[in-house]
Amino acid sequence: METVEQVRQAGVFSTVRRSVRMTVGQQRVWETNWAQLGRKLEDIPAGLVDLADWFGRDAPTVLEIGSGMGEGTSQLARQAPEVNHIAAEVYPAGLGQLMLWVEKYELDNVRLLHGDALEFLTDHLPAESLAGVRVFFPDPWPKKRHHKRRLITPPFVKLLASRLQPGGRLHLATDWQDYADDMLAICEAEPLLTNEYDGWAPRPDWRPITKFESRAHDEGRRCHDLMFMKSAT
């Protein structure tokens, strides 16, 4: 099995750490709900995580990498109560806000990971354990000299494909054309994945419109979705 260092390019993390103070409400829900809903990467014991034990049920599990402020995640969890949703984020205020949404909508199918999703995937998730992986609007690092910092790379996509169950879906979205082109080429080159469409996927109505997508439309950038399925073995 590849190590984190073999998958990660220099300086690349699944999301960029930010130090932002939580609101009073976010702090409250963190103190009351985190022990039940969340795990910090550094606190997870060595070895594989028992997803059925974490959720209290055995159900298809989807990992979202970079859940931001969590509103989109909460809407997706409301739409699919039969699915377990893991939201991976390094931004504590974002996780706190997601827990507020979980509390508001009384969701019991959401769990939160505070830390780098790459390490979680590599060290704590078994092969073929996920029904889906979502990476919506990852940091585009638009300057050419920073492209090497982008998350979606051939080794990372290979890792994601290995964690998907046969028939599982990798769903990517970005509003940067050159990043979308790179994502398409990288995913089409991964032998374990098959494009569900001829090129770009139509934007699904069920994917909530985030502030990033709204801003992209305002700034004249087209958003692209990609949906690849893990081939049956």
From TrEMBL:
Pathway, per record: tRNA modification; N(7)-methylguanine-tRNA biosynthesis
Keywords on record: Methyltransferase, S-adenosyl-L-methionine, Transferase, tRNA processing
Residues that coordinate or bind S-adenosyl-L-methionine: 64, 89, 116, 139
Pfam families for the chain: Methyltransf_4 (PF02390)
SUPFAM superfamilies xref list: S-adenosyl-L-methionine-dependent methyltransferases (SSF53335)
EC number(s) given by UniProt: 2.1.1.33
Catalytic activity: guanosine(46) in tRNA + S-adenosyl-L-methionine = N(7)-methylguanosine(46) in tRNA + S-adenosyl-L-homocysteine
Amino acids binding substrate: 143, 175, 210-213
NCBIfam families: tRNA (guanosine(46)-N7)-methyltransferase TrmB
PANTHER family assigned to the protein according to its UniProt record, in alphabetical order: 3-DEOXY-D-MANNO-OCTULOSONIC-ACID TRANSFERASE/TRNA GUANINE-N 7 - -METHYLTRANSFERASE, PENTACOTRIPEPTIDE-REPEAT REGION OF PRORP DOMAIN-CONTAINING PROTEIN
Biological role: Catalyzes the formation of N(7)-methylguanine at position 46 (m7G46) in tRNA.
Similarity annotation: Belongs to the class I-like SAM-binding methyltransferase superfamily. TrmB family.
Entry protein name: tRNA (guanine-N(7)-)-methyltransferase
Protein source organism: Kribbella koreensis
